[in-house]
Write a structure and sequence with these properties.
By secondary structure, the chain is α+β, with helices and mostly antiparallel strands. The chain is built from 4 helices and 7 strands; from the N terminus they run βαβββαβββαα. Strands 1, 2, 3, 4 and 5 form a 5-stranded antiparallel sheet that branches. Strands 6-7 form a two-stranded antiparallel ribbon.
């Protein structure tokens, strides 16, 4: 199989006892992906963002472009293994504090759907903490659903202009 490129969103809002603050967890997670699951081609700056839902803790968020031989399901499994190794518990509970969250946002193969994984990520178009970092490192990547590139999606979201239906 040939290599695919993936846009991965990284987020943390919980300190890790051995690694440190959420920003350090996000940075280390990106380093751990490079060379193990593929090659990190670009990494966004890490930003701070307000929590979504009832969580009280602010998040550290970033994004990276990963070139990998893994298929989307294989990559998801590997990302979840890394989350567990870094101390994430109880997947599936929305908006709770977490040491690390790693999500596949887009991939060079277009769309993908299987139980437990839908690419593009269903909510990325409404989340500035995802669109900001991904637009920073891959502004020309196109959302295969809307047809807009990431720079356009980010501009529309930050200007509060809804996407036409």
């Amino acid at each position: 199989m040939s290599n695919s490129a993936y846009l991965i969103a990284l987020g943390s809002n919980q300190r890790h006892p051995a690694i440190g603050c959420p920003r350090e967890v996000v940075a280390l997670s990106a380093q751990l992906l490079d060379g193990t699951l593929g090659e990190v081609l670009a990494m966004s700056p890490i930003i701070d963002s307000a929590p979504v839902g009832p969580s009280q803790r602010r998040y550290a968020n970033g994004a990276l472009v990963l070139e990998s031989r893994l298929t989307p399901p294989e990559l998801l499994f590997a990302l979840q293994q890394l989350e567990t190794a870094l101390g994430r518990v109880k997947r599936g509970q929305r908006w709770r504090a977490r040491v690390i969250d790693l999500d596949i946002v887009l991939w060079s193969g277009g769309t993908f759907a299987a139980p437990g994984l839908i690419v593009p990520h269903l909510q990325f178009r409404e989340r500035a903490f995802v669109l900001g970092p991904v637009a920073h490192i891959a502004p020309g990547w196109r959302d295969p659903v809307s047809g807009y590139n990431l720079a356009q999606l980010h501009a529309r979201l930050t200007r509060r202009r809804p996407l036409p239906r």
